[in-house]
Specification:
alpha/beta; 457 residues; single chain; Aspartate Aminotransferase, domain 1; five-stranded mixed β-sheet; 3 domains; 16 helices; Aspartate Aminotransferase, domain 2
């Protein structure tokens, strides 16, 4: 059916009105931060079966549906949203989603969205510059960090085994990574044909950071096992703890031994924009590849993640494909040769509009503020009896315990109340509560209230 522009305009007005109210009340901390109604009950409340079966939604019916839909979700703009590493998205990125939803220019092929592709080119040029790769690097935006890690490791595999794409994966390749690495790295190893057993653990300190002094021994273990390293992965920062590996030390080791150095900077690479935290990524320019999620600390909506390589040709070597209806003539402006995706959303527009509104400095100030808030939680908690913190936070992620009891029970109590959204993580085999300060509305009052609620005050 052809668009009814008048109906779209009315429905769009409803959307803006409802979302504005939703964000406003969320930022003020008025409703519960999280709702977890059982799926069957929620489906009935939303009227899903009826709408699917009968259709006939109007802007008025949509308004009622949207009100319930938003009320039954998780409010990432809420000051008590301290759970997962997902952005409290800024409104320019939301505008980009709106534009893409209507225009739908899947710009992996340049002719399918010249403006969207050009915006992505410039965003990637900016990211490459921030990473220290300059004019020689290459990049692409993908739908999420897991896909970005897979893409980077495809480039590493192409460098280690150039014929793997056509002949299959050699049985002697290994991936070196700490146990603190994101699960997507092990998943990528399996998808790439290496198998999980090819992921060989690196020695770490008690907090999961790579022990640079023990890297020679780790490399020797790999070689004694009859394997050769395809890549070595470091965290910037670790998903669980928010702590950064020593990138300069690891990078120097990899360069000296001819090992591909990959940095998972999905969460922590945005510290490159903060003058006070750039030091945490010292040595990032030594990495052969890195990833950087915009849908975390650059405040875009999900998903938008960059794959960056120090040498542009390495990324171009990751894929080999044939399709007569797509690959013909000059492909110089197409990004499809660098991604798993054939149809790719206008991801660069989200990053660009946030930059255009807030500026590089504004985004850097946001990173610094959220890192400072996590540090403030550490400061406040240390002064209270019963709270223990295994480390001083380096990012906006901090882990801690209260008492000697079951930390999962504390988390469930907070979630059931809708009072706070926390996650948890194991450190040294011990379960800890885990707070990730993402929402700009989170302040000292929120943090004090969190500690009070945990202690049962």
């Amino acid at each position: 059916m052809i668009w009814n522009v008048e109906e779209f305009t009315r429905a769009a007005g409803v959307t803006v009105e409802r979302l504005a109210a939703y964000v406003e009340e969320s930022q003020r901390g008025l409703p519960p931060v999280v709702a977890r109604r059982p799926p069957r009950e929620l489906a009935e409340r939303l009227g899903l079966a009826r709408w699917i079966r009968e259709g006939g939604m109007t802007p008025e019916g949509y308004a009622g549906f949207l009100a319930v839909y938003l009320a039954e979700g998780t409010r990432l703009h809420h000051p008590a949203s301290l759970g997962h590493q997902v952005a409290s998205p800024d409104f320019p990125a939301a505008l980009a989603d709106f534009v893409h939803g209507a225009a739908n220019n899947p710009m992996a092929i340049y002719e399918m969205g010249a403006s969207a592709a050009t915006v992505e080119f410039e965003v990637l040029r900016w990211m490459l510059d921030k990473a220290g790769y300059g004019e020689t690097g290459g990049g692409v935006l993908t739908h999420g960090g897991s896909l970005a890690n897979l893409t980077a490791l495809l480039a590493a595999r192409a460098a280690a085994a150039p014929r793997a794409w056509t002949d299959g994966v050699p049985a002697d390749l290994a991936l070196l990574a700490p146990e603190s690495a994101h699960y997507s790295l092990t998943r990528a190893a399996a998808i790439l044909g290496l198998g999980e057993r090819a992921v060989m653990p690196l020695d770490t300190d008690p907090l999961g950071r790579i022990d640079v002094a023990r890297l020679p021994a780790a490399l020797e273990r790999v070689r004694r096992a009859g394997r050769r390293p395809m890549a070595l992965v470091a965290n910037a920062c670790s998903t669980g703890t928010g702590l950064y590996d020593d990138l300069r030390g690891i990078g120097a080791f990899c360069a000296a031994h001819g090992v591909w150095f990959h940095v998972d900077g999905a969460h922590g690479a945005s510290a490159l924009l903060s003058a006070g935290h750039r030091r945490l990524l010292d040595g990032i320019e030594l990495a052969d590849s890195m990833i950087w999620d915009a849908h975390k600390m650059l405040r875009t909506s999900s998903l938008a993640a960059a794959v960056l390589t120090r040498r542009e040709g390495d990324l171009d070597a990751a894929f080999r494909q044939r399709a007569s209806y797509l690959f013909y003539g000059d492909q110089g402006f197409d990004l499809i040769g660098r991604t798993v995706e054939c149809s790719k959303a206008e991801l660069g527009l989200k990053v660009f509009l946030n930059l255009a509104w807030r500026g590089e400095r504004g985004l850097g100030d946001y990173v610094a503020r959220q890192y400072a808030a996590a540090h403030r939680l550490w400061e406040l908690g240390r002064e209270r009896p019963g709270f223990t913190f295994p480390y001083e936070p380096e990012s906006n992620i901090v882990c801690f315990r209260y008492g000697a009891g079951d930390q999962a029970e504390i988390r469930e109590r907070l979630m059931d109340e809708g009072a706070f959204h926390l996650t948890s993580a194991e450190i040294g085999g011990v379960r800890h509560l885990r707070a990730t300060v993402m929402a700009p509305a989170t302040d000292d009052k929120t943090l004090e209230a969190l500690l009070d609620r945990i202690a049962g005050a």
